[in-house]
Amino acid sequence: MSFENPTAHKRPWEQRLHEAGTRVEEDLRRFVTYFNDEIVPDVRRNGSEALRSAAAELNRLAQRMDDHAPKTPPPPPPPPPGEPKS
């Protein structure tokens, strides 16, 4: 039983494709490590702060919408089922 290099008998384009796949896998592993070590902890630390900031912005937007809404009274509610309409 001999253990041969699986890439020893590949054609040049197959070899390049295999090497590119290997590089992509290595880059993906590095990215996942970076994401888990740098991004996730920062989001966990600052996530509540970001939500509070977003809530404040949404509150300001709602206030502006209320300020620019037409100043007409709301229509009367419809009569309950079974009552004649006036």
From TrEMBL:
| Start and end residues of each stretch annotated as Disordered | 1-23, 58-86
* Ranges of biased composition (kind: Pro residues): 71-86
> Locations of Basic and acidic residues compositional bias?
11-23
What is the recorded name of this protein? Uncharacterized protein
Give the organism the record lists: Edaphobacter paludis
Kindly list the organism's lineage: Bacteria, Pseudomonadati, Acidobacteriota, Terriglobia, Terriglobales
